[in-house]
Amino acid sequence: MATFTALLDACVLYPAPIRDLLIRLARTGLYQAKWTDQIHDEWIQNLLVSRPDLTKEQLQRTRTLMNSAVLDCLVKNYESLIPSITLPDPNDRHVLAAALRSRTDVIVTFNLKDFPEDVLSEYGIQAQHPDEFMSHLIDLAPGIVCSSVKHMREALKNPPYSVAQLFATLEGLSLVQTVAALRDYADLL
C-alpha cells in the first residue's frame, strides 16, 4: 500500500472524469486516496444542484463504489479537530481536520486560496491543484498513469472517446499540464 496520502476535496470529486482518474490512480498504489462522508455529501449535493437529470440514488451508488474501490479511504473521528482550525473559509475546516486525522501529505483541491500555504505548512501538509498533483504522478510513474488513462478511456463506451476527445475533456477541466505531459504518450493511450 502507498505511504503517500492525498485527501481529495469535494471539488475534485464533483467532475466525473477527474474523480474517475484519481480513483484509478489510487487503485494502482501510487498514492493512498482519502475522503470523508462529509466530503461525499458535499460533492453529491453540488452535483445534484447542477445536474437535475441525476438522482440521489445514482450518486449514492457512485459513493458506495468509490468506498469499495479504494481500501481505507474513509477518514473518521476528525470532527473534534474542526473547532481549533482557522481557514479563510470556515466551511473548509472539516477538510483540513480530516487531513490531519489521516496524516495526509497533500490536499488535492481546486480551491487553493482556501488552504493557505502558511497555515498548512504548520501541519506539514500541502494543497495542490489536481493538475499539479496528476503531473507529479506522471513524472513519478508515467507507465502506470498511462495505463490508468488508457483503461479510463476504453471504459467510456457511450459514446466512445478518442484520445483527442479525452484530452479535450481533461483540458476543459483545467488539467492542462496533465494533458501536456500525456501528449508525449498519446500512442499508449
Sketch the major β-sheet. 4 strands, parallel
> What's the mean pLDDT score?
95
Proportion of beta-strand residues: 5-15%
Report the principal-axis shape: globular
CATH uppermost class of the largest domain: Alpha Beta
Distance between the termini: 25 Å
Output the CATH topology of the largest domain: Rossmann fold
Percent of residues in helices comes to 40-55%
Q: How many helices does DSSP assign?
A: 10
Strand order of the largest sheet: 2-1-3-4
Determine the structural class based on helices, strands and strand pairing: alpha/beta
Walk me through this protein's architecture.
With 189 residues, the chain is of the alpha/beta class. It has two domains: 5-130, 3-Layer(aba) Sandwich (Rossmann fold); 135-188, no CATH class. Helix content is 53%, strand content 7%. The chain contains ten helices and four strands, in the order βααβαααβαβαααα. It has helices at residues 10-13, 16-27, 37-50, 56-69, 93-101, 117-121, 130-140, 142-155, 163-172, 176-183, and strands at 5-8, 32-34, 106-108, 126-128. A four-stranded parallel sheet has the order 2-1-3-4, with helices on both faces. Strand 3, helix 6 (117-121) and strand 4 (126-128) form a beta-alpha-beta unit. Helix 7 packs parallel to helix 10 (176-183). The radius of gyration is 16 Å and the shape is globular.
